[in-house]
Amino acid sequence: MTAAARVFLPLTDSPLLNSDHDADAELAIRLAATADPDPATIRALLSITAASAAGRITRTLDDRTDLPLAALALLVAHRPEAKRATRALRDRLFFPDDATPGMCHTFARTIAALAHRPETIDDAYLASERFRQSARAANPAVLGELLALLLHADILAGPAETALHALLTARADHAPVDLAGAAALQRAHHRRVRAALLTRREQTIHDLAHHTRGLTLAAERWFDALTAAADTPAQAGQALALAETAAAHLSSDDDPDCASPSVRRHWQQVTATAHAARAHPPVWEQAWRAAEATDDGARWDDTQRSLVAGYDLLREHVRTAWANADSPPTPDQCWAADPSGRALLHLVADHLTGHQTHSPLPHYDDRLLIAFVHGLAKNRRDHLPADLHLHGLIAAIKAARSKAAVLARHDRIDLGIVVPMRDETHRLNPEHGDDALTVKIAQLTWLLQACPDARADLLLVDESTDHAARATTVEHPQIRVTITARPDDASAKGGAVLWGLAQLLGTGSSVLAYTDLDLTYPLEQLGLHVAALDEPGVGAVIGSRRRPDSHGYYPSTGPTPTALLYQRAVRDLLQLDVGDPQAGFKAFPAAALRTALPLVTDHSLAFDTDLLAAIARSGHTLAEVGVAALHHYVEDHRGTPRDYDAMLAAVHRQALRHGLDSGTRRTPTWDRIRRAGSLAAAAAEPAVKPTSPTSR
């Protein structure tokens, strides 16, 4: 016969602590004498109100000498007649030399009540000199421990706010408990002042969404700025009036009167969003309605519904736009070079930032979102050429997160972007090339248009010696485009990038970046870099192809053995703990570049690692963000030929210049490659299995 399984409940859930029966009351009293005195158990024991048990439980707990501070406060708050516990709490609250008999018991009861039952506090005592003297003498560390939950609460009830204010006024100190208390009072004040405004939030955003085709992120940021600026009742009243008329202002395209620069700046973002939304093709609403439920009738969560609607739009675009093509386009042709595909990707990305206040971005990281997209394609059994719909939707997810980061930024964005060229002027041709410049301007425009004060300098540096490129400057409302011919036989991309970065340092750009002229890396994802650069100490951000949340560049099995070996050798030689040092999509703060550029001398294809090492030597950290490259990997296909052995030799020279001492630091991967004679030979070597110490 099988014994029945036992189920043990937590002590605080025990019926012994929640019963009026006399027999159970006896057991509860025994628990009061012997149970571990954690606050949850004490609270449960004190919740017993039966006359036959409550008094005995109080006396039993009062007789214990092992109650910790939190348990003492609970007991005194709920049973102020517990004399021993009150005395013990008083002794803990005061430094021994400061305790005045007969004077501090009431203060101990008041602090316990402030922590747990503020509605029972005597206001007359708070106004007394006895309270003020005790408050000044109390141990601030103990006060902080007793009031920790109160000081971190989102809301302070009226009695709690009154008592806390009296305590801090009496103390007039700058101990951590006083600073935390002041912050709690400030939060309570703001919440009280802004209460009516906060109740208006949902309706105001809904009204604004009517004029932005449901795009709500900019409206949410504006309302948050409006709320943050309301510090007084008068300001809160003005903000509430503005919230009630915001939709009318947006409809008439005028700027509401507001003194706060932050509110005015975010209103410009709302206006820009409305203008951009009107330019989108009117297809989202139909896709949104169609994506309400799954094929079996289950409803999608609204955050997932945005992904499904985007998936459907991009899938149908591939099916219709390229149905009669002789061969499927590459992802960069479909979602960057083709204006209709690019516009549709931007439409989906805009709605993923927030459609009717629903966005998947705050709820899921990109790795999960990418997994969802693949799962959706698998369940739908969609087999489109080159998985173009997947490339498009994942690129839209990255673009959406990039734009959300730009909208969330407090400081103005001022970008400087270098694009090196050599024998690539054909890519600028709209008829026989990628029309690359038009594409890059369109991608940057979409990213920056929601921030009217944002600016970008796009500098194309042509190192060709045939003078194919013509020096020119093109003015755009937010983007200044310059094409510069800089013939240089001795450079191989590195010279153009480094020269261009140095030029842009003089333009006042706060964030500088570089990328290639081809369309592999979409500039609309540059907001990912900007957000990472806002983290303290970051001196460079790599748009990585090799993170778990990256997409598009490598097959599912990952980089080739040669590429991985190269990366390990770079880590050996330069101690760069990054996964994709050669990625052609990087960004830097201007301050870090000013320090690092004079340390960089390599103008070859290996210049990236020299620059990263110089930034690391300058005391900055390196960060990586996963990007969605518009690239379709084809097995055994190689792009621009590169001599990786020559590049690795350059990295070794960089390491020596940056302080590598082979006598004190081991470089096993570099040594292995040197012994094998080349990267390819080292990568082809069979893995060496460790020899067991017991083998013969």
What are the salient characteristics of this protein?
696 residues, 4 domains, eight-stranded mixed beta sheet
Tell me what the structure shows:
It comes from Micromonospora carbonacea. With 696 residues, this protein is an alpha/beta fold. The protein has helices spanning 22-34, 39-46, 51-63, 69-78, 83-93, 105-116, 123-126, 129-137, 140-146, 148-151, 158-171, 176-199, 201-209, 217-228, 233-252, 261-279, 284-290, 302-321, 331-337, 339-353, 366-380, 388-408, 436-448, 494-505, 526-533, 561-574, 590-596, 607-617, 644-657, 668-676, 679-684; strands at 414-421, 455-462, 472-475, 479-485, 511-515, 538-544, 585-589, 621-626. The relative contact order is 0.05. Residues 689-696 have low confidence and may be disordered.
Rg computed from alpha carbons, rounded to a whole number of angstroms: 33 Å
pLDDT < 50 runs, ≥5 residues:
689-696
Helix content: 40-55%
CATH-assigned homologous superfamily of the largest domain: Spore Coat Polysaccharide Biosynthesis Protein SpsA, Chain A
Q: Terminal Cα separation, in Å?
A: 54 Å
Strand proportion, as a percent range, falls in 5-15%
Main CATH class of the largest domain: Alpha Beta
Strand order of the largest sheet: 3-4-2-1-5-7-6-8
Determine the number of helices (DSSP H or I, runs of at least 4 residues): 31
Into how many domains do the coordinates divide? 4
User: What about the largest sheet?
Assistant: 8 strands, mixed
CATH architecture of the largest domain: Alpha-Beta Complex
CATH topology annotation of the largest domain: Spore Coat Polysaccharide Biosynthesis Protein SpsA, Chain A
Shape estimate? globular
Instruction: Report the strand count.
Output: 8
